[in-house]
Amino acid sequence: MSFKRKSILNKTVKNSTLKNNLCINCGICKSVCPKSAVILKPDKYGEYKPLINQKDCINCGICTEYCPNTKEKMQKEALKITSIEEPHTFGLQNGSYYLAYGKDSSLRQKCCSGGVVTEFAKYLLKTGRIQAMVHVERLWANKGSLHYGARISNTIEDIENNVSSAYQPIDFSGVLKELKSGETYFITGTPCIIRGMRKLFSENEKFKNIKVILCALICSHNTNSQIADYLFDSHNLDDSECWQINTRNKDNIPDANNYNNHFYTKKIDLLKMNRNKSGWTQIWRSHYFAMNACLYCSDFWGYEADISVKDAWGQWSVDPLGKSIVILRNKELEQVFLNSNIEVEKLNYEVIKEHQKPTPVFKQTNAKNKNFKTFFSKSNRKNGLFRYKVISNCSKFFYNYLGLKLTQKIIRQVEKLIDIGEKL
Question: Is the model's pTM score more than 0.70?
């Protein structure tokens, strides 16, 4: 198979999204290509990037039009979000806010947060408001392969049996082609995915006759699939059989903060360990293996979604089964939500806007500096972008080429150098 040269690729996603390393592997470009000229191939870090088939591409630019993460779109988002008085609150206006959790404690035990998304999806399906849910599932895989994928669940049992929290970009192109005109789907994804889906189902001829309810899973950032392999290697686990990872296991935990990382095969448990002891917390907070696009993303609250959901940390995390913060932007949907099998407590705007404030400040308040200044500028050294970008790139590169132990040693030294630089 041959691929177009740079000189004639000016309208495709390669010219902006890939050139600036902003791809989130969502597969929307593949889904909208009128000539099926886009294929997704893994790069050296296991991130699935679009390639353009020279034989079929007509250089129409539709892939770029629907990509949510071109540099131009991300800069436009940054300007829009930082234009208000308190940028960290962008996406909270005109919403209703709830502390919520599912009434079924056994299902909450399986879910990563308060079971709200799962319970709501079940209720929508049971009452005929949707025909299916589009969401994430864990995959059986070995090191070097994808650990999560997208699926369509059209039964209550499927929804309940495929609850998951994914720490890896998800390719939705396979499930998008299975959706049927005239039907309604409940789609979950990170805010960047939801922005892409909103445009896709509103404007594209192939998809605009499909109805969707969009649910944003509020996130600080996402990582590539190397993070699961790195943690697996950190504990010298046996890779001879395919395995799965549940990063948010709740077995015998004292509170929601102390969840477990759980590795298992179809036959045995490989590891079940508190996330603060396993190494997960440190590598996550340090942005090991972070997707580059996440460092520049300025949408924390998922403002394009009908409903946004996140873990309720802080004062609410004493409940080991977890609770969720829910933002509803659709009054009709809000009434449906309140009638579902979910316990709710109304929250006010002032409480929500202060919740986990450092994260929306990093993503939203600092968005203009991150998207328009160099990553090593004074402002971006101060806000954390420089540190996160260096650690992300180092972890991907050195783990791929040098393995676990050398990567750990190198990054420790890199972090020390960054610390010294920040004091100068």
Answer: yes
